[in-house]
Write a structure and sequence with these properties.
By secondary structure, the chain is α/β, with parallel strands linked by helices. The protein has two domains: 179 residues, Nucleotidyltransferase, domain 5; 65 residues, no CATH class. The chain is 36% helix and 16% strand. It has eleven helices and five strands, in the order βββαααβααβαααααα. A five-stranded mixed sheet has the order 3-2-1-4-5, with helices on both faces. One of its GO terms (molecular function) is exonuclease activity.
Length: 253
Amino acid sequence: MTVLNSDFRVRVIDLETAGNGKNDVCEIGWQDVGLGPDGRWRIEQERGALMVNPGRPIAVETMAIYHIVDADVATAPYWRQVASSILRPGAGVKLLTAHRSAFEQRYCTPGLTGGSPWICTWKCSMRLWPQLTSFSNQMLRYQRVPVGLDRDIGLPAHRAMPDAYVTAHRLRDMLNEVSIDQLVAWSLEPGSLPRVPSGAERGKTWDRLSVEMLREMSLARDPDIKFSAETELSRRGEKELVVVVGPSQGRLF
């Protein structure tokens, strides 16, 4: 069980990348969530963003999304020069978080993070609020309308610090509902999709599918579809659920 104290903080991370391959981070943003004196989780003042030189030109398609151009990162430090100072800052930061954290974990390797546990707010959102229609970062922002979210700080969307800030409000609400240990456990499992994401059965909840259809979907290559189908089969007593933990990331919702 995780031991909490007054300086315990969780750091939310968001990365933007150049779109040209491995180790091509061009911006990192962060926002801390901490434990207040009343025992409730809150958004801290510690947040920021840093440009990173990806060591290669930024793809035009990436520029069109993030509006980060080569001139913005030309004199910036390289990823391995700055990553640990943000990912392993000490001073109470015990865990890292990201929305669809499997992406960030490709770059934020254990050697850079010190092996910190991760919380994936995408996976945890589907567990806590399965009734919602979409689980993207921005859709969750407007579906849930978290208390205290400053619209100006949370813009522009698809930039590292504003996206981390938006995700942090979701994490705060999660931490005030369930324990850190539960969120970490859910994050280690594949995503538990509330509904079938594609195909002829798209949009149906898993309990509406036949056993035959569930067995077919349990053979899917997508780990989240496979896990969701197997979970329903297990609930019906048709299959023993064997969970392979890891930061796997399925399709967008």
